[in-house]
Amino acid sequence: MQVGLEAIGVAVPDTYVELADLAMARGVAPGKYVDGLGVTRMGVPLVDEDTVTLAARAARMALESARCSPDDIGLLVVGTETAVDHSKPVASYVQGLLGLSTRCRIFETKHACYGGTAALQMALDWVRSGSAKGRKALIVCSDIARYGVGTPGEPTQGAGAVAMLVSDHPSLVVLEAGKTGVYSKDVMDFWRPLYSKDALVDGHYSVQCYLDALEGAYRAYQEAAGDAGGEGAYSDRFAALVYHVPYGKMSRKAHRHLRTLDGDAAPDASFDRLVGHSLVMPSQVGNIYTGSMYLALASLLSSAPEDLTGKRVGLFSYGSGSCAEFFSGVVQDGAQARVKALGLEAKLARRRALSIPEYEDVMRAREHLDERPAADAAGSGFRYQGTRDHKRIYAT
Ligand code: CAA
C-alpha cells in the first residue's frame, strides 16, 4: 500500500510587513534582514485571526482541493506551539468550523516546530496499519510566530497554516515507509514559558542545535534507507531538499552542512538547484513554525519549473527542544499542476502591507486578544470574534 499526501491547503494572514521597512525602523541595514536572513516579507495577522482560523482555512482548502467530504475524515490532528487554550485543542474548534463527523479522533500535538511532523508520521502509520479503514487523516500545522518587538528574533516572525490530507490515495506525494531518520536531544535553544506570549530563544545556539540535529537525522536516514555507498554525493539521490525554514538563510546553512557531510568540496554550488524553489513562499511569509517545512514543500511543487514526477524529495523537520526527522517522498504525476491550481502565489500577491506603526499597534492589541470581548457584529469566513463567558467565539 502506498500512503502519503493526497492534498494540501495553505492559509496565511491577509496582511504582512515588508522586512526592509522593519529594518529601517530598527536602525538596521535592510540587507541584513533581506539578504542576511533571507526574508523579504513576514505575515502578520490582524486581531480577528488566530491559530484556529488559520488552521480551519488551510484545512478547508485541502478538503476542497481533493473534493473530500468532512465525513471521510477519521483522524484530525493539529500540530501547534501557539495554541489558544491550555486544555481544549485547536483541533476541536477546527472540527466544529468544518463540520467534521463525531466519529473522528481529534487532538493536538506539541513539540515546537516538530509537532506537525509528529502528527503526520502517526497518521501515516494509522493508514498503513489498516486502522483507517478507508478513511483519511487531516493533519494541520498552524502557528503564529511571535518574538518581542525590537529583539533579534523580530524579523523571523510570521504566521500561517498548512493542512495535509493523508490517505492511501497519495496523489501529491508518496511518503516512503521506513525511510526516516530521527534525532532528539534535550536542549534549551528556543522555548516559551507558560507566562509569556513571546518566544524566548538563544538565537545563535539554536542555529547550532538545528545543524547538529540535521546531521544526526540525516545519518539515521541513511542507515534506515539502507542504500548508503555508491557514486557521488548521497544527497544527489534527491531531486530537491526541503528544510525547516525559520528564515531562508537557515536553509542555506543547512544545505551547506549536509553537502559538507556528503564530502562535497563546493557545498553551496547545488543550493539553487536543490533548495531554491522551496524558499519562494517562505521568503514571503516568514517562519510559520510547525508548517514551515510544509510551506516550503508547497513552494517547491508550485514553483519548480522542471517536472518532478517520480522524483524523490528529502524533507527535514526540526523542532527546538529538540526533535528532528529526515524523511523522503516521491512526487506523483499531476502533483505540481494541482498545487499550482491552488493559486498560492496570487494569494500572497493580494495581501496588504502594514506600516510599521500599524504593525506595532497590532502586536500590542494581540497581547490582550484572549480576553477581548466578543464583537456583536456577525462576521464570516472563519474569523475570531472575541471571548464571551471565557469561551472563544468564531464566525463561520
Ligand atoms: N547585508 C547582508 N547581510 C548582513 C548584513 C548586511 N548589511 N548585516 C548582517 N548580515 C548577515 C550576517 O553576516 C549574518 O549572516 P550569516 O548567518 O551567514 O553569518 C546574518 O545577516 C544575520 O546576522 P546576525 O547573526 O548578526 O543576526 P542576529 O544576531 O541579529 O540574529 C538570529 C540572527 C540568531 C537568526 C535571530 O534572528 C534569531 O534569534 N532568530 C530566531 C531563532 C531562529 O530562528 N533560530 C533558527 C534555528 S531554531 C529553529 O529553526 C526552530 C524555529 O523555528 C525557531
Description:
It contains 13 helices and 16 strands. The mean pLDDT is 96. Helix 6 packs across helix 7 (248-261). It has 396 residues and is of the alpha/beta class. The radius of gyration is 20 Å and the shape is globular. The two termini are 37 Å apart. A hairpin with an 8-residue loop joins strand 9 (190-191) and strand 10. It has one domain (4-395): Thiolase/Chalcone synthase (Peroxisomal Thiolase, Chain A, domain 1). It has helices at residues 19-25, 30-36, 51-65, 90-98, 115-129, 203-225, 248-261, 271-274, 282-285, 292-303, 335-340, 344-349, 356-367; strands at residues 4-11, 15-18, 41-43, 73-79, 105-109, 136-145, 158-167, 173-184, 190-191, 200-201, 240-243, 312-319, 323-331, 352-353, 383-388, 391-395. A 9-stranded mixed beta sheet has the order 5-4-6-7-1-8-13-12-11, with helices on both faces. The longest helix has 23 residues, at 203-225. The structure holds acetoacetyl-coenzyme A. Acetoacetyl-coenzyme A binds next to helix 2, helix 6 and helix 7. Acetoacetyl-coenzyme A (CAA) binds next to helix 2, helix 6 and helix 7.
